Amino acid sequence: MHRDALRGSDPSREFGTGAATERRRGGGVSVLPRTRAQLARFVDHTILKPEATAAEIDRLCDEAVAHGFFAVCVNPVWVARCVERLGGAGVSPAHSIVGTATGPPVRARSASEGTPPPTAATRILPVVCTVAGFPLGASLPQVKAEEARRAVEQGAREVDMVVNLGALIAGDRPTVVGDIAAVVETTKRANPAALVKVILETRALTDEQIILGCQCCIEARADFVKTSTGFHAKGGATVEHAALLKKHAAPLKVKAAGGIRDLPT
Fold it and tell me: Dihedral of the CA atoms 213, 216, 218, 219 (nearest 10)?
């Protein structure tokens, strides 16, 4: 299974101390990461295997902090543990949690207070991401929505939901849009700052079905489209599918996932 997931080539993460939970605003020119530290801000450090243990989840969080990854992505059962270990990673963007090498996490300054200068000792703590309807996408919309609501109330800042794949392949646009919208609306009610990413499982789809999936995500007001669960037999992300999402999902962001394990991929 995939252990991490790179964001699309249109960066959605601000680099630098104090901005880890803020989205890039406006229509500025995309900036590609030039250093490993910058690249780390595009990574969701992930463990979604069902046999994951508490010790593995703790190690995932510690690795994410050590490497400066943007998020940890775990199954809903581990959300509360991750939020606690990361010092409250579910708080609002204006009150990000910052950890230091010499002391416990402290509240970062809000925009009105000014941003403290970055130091080598400062760490931006990862946010917590979870999943809904994972990995099949075949749950009822109400079940996915409830799964998302509970996770967000426990402190998750992002929810990666799996689309109703059968409905998408059949071209049933109203069902697909309704499925996504149920999760988006419930998530935003629980926390307006929380984000919803929709996994299309692109390796199981034709290009036409992928384009329809993008259109449904836009109509349902999702925040991201995502390539894959990393669990499908046909495989995970490809460069071609990521490019197709970027072309047809705008203004939504793109997350590539599944099989991305090192710098070359």
Answer: 170
| Strand pairing category for 103-107 and 97-100 | antiparallel
Domains belonging to the chain, first-starting first, are 4-255 (3.20.20.70)
33-62 pLDDT, tens per residue?
Answer: 888 889 999 999 999 999 999 999 999 999
Rounded to two decimals, what is the model's pTM? 0.78
Which distant-in-sequence residues (6+ apart) come within 8 Å of 177 by Cβ?
A: 216, 219, 220
Residue 141 has pLDDT above 50, yes or no: yes
Contact 146, 108 (CB under 8 A): no
97-100 sheet: strands from edge to edge: 103-107, 97-100, 122-124
CB 131 within 8 A of CB 171: no
Show which residues are catalytic. Answer: 160, 226, 255
Give 203's DSSP letter: G
